[in-house]
Amino acid sequence: MTFTAGNYTGKLTVTELPEGGIWTEPGSSLMRKTGDWKTLQPVWDGQKCISCLTCWAYCPDSCFKTEKVLNEKTGKEDVKNRGIDLDHCKGCGICAAVCPPKVAAITMEKAR
Amino acid sequence: MTATTIIKQLTVAKTGNEAMADAMRQVNPDVVAAYPITPATEIAQIFSSFVADGMVTTDMVTVESEHSAMSATIGAAAAGARAMTATASQGLMLMAEMLPIAAALRLPIVMPEVNRAISGPINIHCDHSDTMFCRDAGWLQIFSENAQEAYDNVLQAVKIAEDPRVHLPALVTTDGFIISHGMETIKILPDDEAKSFVGEYKPNYSLLNHEKPITVGSIDLQNYYFEHRIPMIEAMKTAKDIIKQVGREYGEKYGRFYDLIEQYKIDDAEVALICLGSTAGTAKDVVDALRTKGQKVGLIKIRVFRPFPVEDLAAALRNLRAAAVFDRSDSLSGYGGPVFTEVCSALFNSENKPKIVNYIYGLGGRDIDIHTIEAVYDRLNKLKDAQDTGEIVSYLGVRK
Amino acid sequence: MAETIEIRWHGRGGQGAKTAALLVADAAIATGKLAQAFPEYGPERMGAPVKAFNRISDQEIRIHCSVEHPSIVLVLDETLVDSVNILEGVPANGTIIINTEKSADEYRQQLGFQGSLYTVNASGIALKNIGMNKPNTPMLGALVKATGILDYQKMLEDTTHKLEKKFKNKPEVIEGNVKAIQDAYEEVNK
């Protein structure tokens, strides 16, 4: 078996591992679902969100999903916030803290 | 091989440091990051003049400490560069945290290192306590008897370390001041010959390849740490064959053969001394002198201390009746020096083994002269027929 | 064991005792011999008494212990004669060469030395030819004349060559040093 993020089962043997303990394939953190670590979870309100993307920049786990949307007024593409990847969000609450108070699009609630 | 096929070499006068710097020039590493420390300062200093004079294409990085020197060297090596540095004593101590990381990342860094006592008290002279301190860091350790070997060993170390079956970092040591600052007659290979012997380095991976991003030095817990350590251990074992192979090839091409250990007049010897580094040369003269008196004495020089040549030593010592292990450091374990305990463990499972005693000598640069070595052979000659071994660990030339 | 000539240099830090030993080794190697040169291992301080050593042989030199019984001793600074035992370990038939204005007889009496004792005003020669009190190169000339351990012409050639490398842009230094060696070769007295 060759080593890839996809087959990183946690059971690889000495001969199957790459030399020097390196990771030869990117994207392994996608495999590691950390979403169930949280005690509080962020709830994002798409109606209130102004897509300033402060939360996107601050999120330590890159959990904010975005989408490019054509702005008919300017003719350019805007980047829109499309919510949170809860499979990987650890519930740190940074996003809620940095969301502008006037907007308050993210609130922390008890995790399900 | 006949002498006529040996490639012609230039005879020059060089100190150990000059010899190692010159070997580095011929290797032409991509990156050298270094910080000065007595008695190894000259190596990087001379090499930096090669950089300034355009004789090498190396990126020379002057850093603020040995910890940074090793870190920068590791970084460069992880980026796929052939990277080198040089140090001694306290410098090696400061590097100590990074040394096992270079080994674990399987980076074939080659580092000339000049053996010097470690503090305290502060001392700049030769003993092996610095190198022995780092003996379990996962680095190959090659000891040089003289400036010639220092030169030859640097070239060979690059080839050994970079061999895909090894991929471990290597220390090449000389004895501080005795070899590092002593000028001797040595032979050096033509530049193109040295270059072709060392060959081109093909790194396994590069941190800077954005087409194929990788992660280096990630955390590795109960689940995988053990599996990642095993290949290092295997590589260390495999290195023995590669070192022998490279030493043989070097001998066939250039007339100077190298092995894990050097056996000097051991074949019919009854007693022998086991030592490392520059003391071996002095001891060889003593062996010759005692042989003219009809004494069956010999010498075993351990050239490679890591990997430890267990099998070779057990075989070489099989027919001896008494041997003295010379340690130029004490492990402060209360039971002698590191070479002694390792030689003993190499022999423990052998059926035939000599009586073995340990001599700690030359700490902090204390001179080891011919008479002292003769006295040890005298004792061995008595010991071989004696019932009682007597003192196991003794200290040479100490005022008690 | 092969016959090995052992030499000890006495000087003060900065006078070039180590450099002199290196030059001798270099010249010996250039004349087809095998040689070692090493300082009394340590950090040299300006003005402090220092020693340097040579071994010269026709065969491989393997020993790496310090020199105990030098057959030749060179003293770069005569004030050391009072503070250091320059005769230590020297055999009765050894050779001593001292950089001084005094005559060899004066030192022979002062030291009570039975072997060959030579004097040469190496400092004076250096001042005249190089403009600095660097007695080490003239002492090379005196050494070769007194002991014949090296071929004079070959030694001159090799030293010139070595100086040419070191002082690429100062030809006057090279000339001065060579002249100093030649003068000392002529002037050294028994």
From TrEMBL, chain A:
One of its GO terms (molecular function) is metal ion binding. PANTHER family: PYRUVATE SYNTHASE SUBUNIT PORD. The gene is porD. Its cofactor is [4Fe-4S] cluster. Keywords: 4Fe-4S, Iron, Iron-sulfur, Metal-binding, Pyruvate, Repeat. InterPro entries: 4Fe4S_Fe-S-bd (IPR017896), 4Fe4S_Fe_S_CS (IPR017900), PorD_KorD (IPR011898). It comes from Candidatus Termititenax persephonae. Pfam families: Fer4_7 (PF12838). SUPFAM superfamilies: 4Fe-4S ferredoxins (SSF54862). This is Pyruvate:ferredoxin oxidoreductase subunit delta. Residues 40-69, 80-111 form the 4Fe-4S ferredoxin-type domain.
Automatic annotation (TrEMBL), chain B:
The keyword Oxidoreductase applies. Keywords: Oxidoreductase, Pyruvate. One of its GO terms (biological process) is response to oxidative stress. It holds the Pfam family POR_N. The keyword Cell membrane does not apply. Residues 23-246 form the Pyruvate flavodoxin/ferredoxin oxidoreductase pyrimidine binding domain. GO terms for molecular function: oxidoreductase activity, acting on the aldehyde or oxo group of donors. PANTHER family: PYRUVATE-FLAVODOXIN OXIDOREDUCTASE-RELATED (PTHR32154). Belongs to the pyruvate:ferredoxin/flavodoxin oxidoreductase family. This is Pyruvate:ferredoxin oxidoreductase subunit alpha. The gene is porA.
Automatic annotation (TrEMBL), chain C:
Transmembrane segments: none annotated. One of its GO terms (molecular function) is oxidoreductase activity, acting on the aldehyde or oxo group of donors, iron-sulfur protein as acceptor. The keyword Iron does not apply. Residues 13-186 form the Pyruvate/ketoisovalerate oxidoreductase catalytic domain. Pfam families: POR. Gene3D superfamilies: Pyruvate-ferredoxin oxidoreductase, PFOR, domain III. This is Pyruvate:ferredoxin oxidoreductase subunit gamma. InterPro entries: Oxidoreductase_gamma_subunit (IPR051626), PorC_KorC (IPR011894), Pyrv/ketoisovalerate_OxRed_cat (IPR019752), Pyrv_flavodox_OxRed_cen (IPR002869). Keywords: Oxidoreductase, Pyruvate. Coiled coil: none annotated. It comes from Candidatus Termititenax persephonae.
